Amino acid sequence: MIDIFTTGGTIDKIYFDALSEYHIGPTPLPDILAENNVYVPHRVTQLMRKDSLELTDDDRQAIHDAVAASDADKILVTHGTDTMVQTAMVLADITDKTIVLTGAMQPATLRNSDAEFNVGFALAATQTLPHGVYIAMNGEVFDPATTKKDRDAHRFIRA
Amino acid sequence: MIDIFTTGGTIDKIYFDALSEYHIGPTPLPDILAENNVYVPHRVTQLMRKDSLELTDDDRQAIHDAVAASDADKILVTHGTDTMVQTAMVLADITDKTIVLTGAMQPATLRNSDAEFNVGFALAATQTLPHGVYIAMNGEVFDPATTKKDRDAHRFIRA
Amino acid sequence: MIDIFTTGGTIDKIYFDALSEYHIGPTPLPDILAENNVYVPHRVTQLMRKDSLELTDDDRQAIHDAVAASDADKILVTHGTDTMVQTAMVLADITDKTIVLTGAMQPATLRNSDAEFNVGFALAATQTLPHGVYIAMNGEVFDPATTKKDRDAHRFIRA
Amino acid sequence: MIDIFTTGGTIDKIYFDALSEYHIGPTPLPDILAENNVYVPHRVTQLMRKDSLELTDDDRQAIHDAVAASDADKILVTHGTDTMVQTAMVLADITDKTIVLTGAMQPATLRNSDAEFNVGFALAATQTLPHGVYIAMNGEVFDPATTKKDRDAHRFIRA
């Protein structure tokens, strides 16, 4: 069983014309997994719908508690990219699970989104990596303790 | 360095109206990797453009030789799904590399293709799995020796 | 009221992996009209699902009769491109309606399909053109009597 | 010859992650017309890249002057939907051309955008309608003098 927790972020953004703005919408994870015929047992839980710049300590604690309470040892967390490393560090004390965080630079609703590729990549990582916490972005697996988001290059790099 | 070898299959099919048929086209791998901002060093080599039902023993030997000759120890092979297991078995004697085979049930040119998800998934597998040969389809990693394609269910299963 | 009759053709083709072939599926018209928030009253009737090279005289007569029996004076017919002109000529004796035929060179299921553009184009034509029969393809309105499909150029031209 | 003038608006919005905002980008018109194999002679001129709520009287005058100076009598203007009616009224004194304004409720970069459908629809309208100024949205042709945008319903209606 893979427990998937969604928290918001760019990956979940949808376009609302009424306000001409981009809002966090419902997670696209169920659709992505269905479209790609993913049979491996999994559960999707939407914890929150927040831009990661707006996550509070309480929010990160809530994510931590949900992950720690899971009976699965394979965890995928979708998350905004801006503070993904921060949340990963909060999860670091959970040592009996493989926890992978991913997100997207472009919303899943965009034609050229990286959402599907990243979710596929991260789903493999949850099943193949040993216990620990990881960032999976740009086709690479990163150790949160030594990585950061390079905004201008639209990718994560080793700090 | 990840060496990516493309061989054809549904993942590479494009629609030609002139003949009202679906033909194998150039591999979409470079576009997929670029669109998803994959920075990890990689090389894409198009070995052939064949439906996997049309691969001959010579073709599979050519794939084997290209993989064996690679100086990389992370190999991704995109391949038609119909005889993916067969090619994987031919590669089984290469024991000093992580070799992952993937493809797609729906061409990359389709709006709801599984191509991007599968390539993302397989790219993670090449970087995280120990040496050996694997099938990566439907969000799961399979041992070629114990798997087969279930045509009606549009997925791979443990035989 | 715009009466829309669908008959098959490339616009309706969907990809079946089980047979590795492209089959005519249900018409994408309802989805296209919903996605594009088309409010003008309309009705969609699927008459048949045939490649236009396989339409018989009886089929074309059936299309003719359905159009003639419609109480609407604005008719859109989606049709395979190979014999679209032929069907248009069969409809030529219906003089009290604006009848527009369109289709697609690439199935609606393809990422870069011309289906949506062509349906939008044709829907405007049904509402603005005087009574008569027209082909609407490649961003142009053609008189069936003086047009033909140029297969190699993937478009319709004045003969 | 159809003269196409682009001014910005939602149809041209692209997603910049660096600022997590949606910005007006280059017009997608050339790509849309190429993808849909539009052969009818046309020219695309990007006049500005502005959200239509930010257009000034000088901007609307600039649009007016570009249209009036065109040697074509078929004009398509892509425009933000919020003040499309306002610009249409400014163009009303140009009586020797067919001028059609369209835009999109969802950016062209979105998977389910109405951009392609609307551009196809409007392109037909420029070729079939008599001289005058029109709004083409939601699969309908509107007289600017008697129409307005219904924000909540995401469409244009007769006022």
UniProtKB/TrEMBL annotation, chains A, B, C, D:
Residues 2-149 form the L-asparaginase N-terminal domain. InterPro entries: Asp/glu_Ase-like_sf (IPR036152), Asparaginase/glutaminase-like (IPR006034), L-asparaginase_N (IPR027474), L-asparaginase_N_sf (IPR037152). It holds the Pfam family Asparaginase. This is Asparaginase. The lineage of its organism: Bacteria, Pseudomonadati, Pseudomonadota, Alphaproteobacteria, Sphingomonadales.
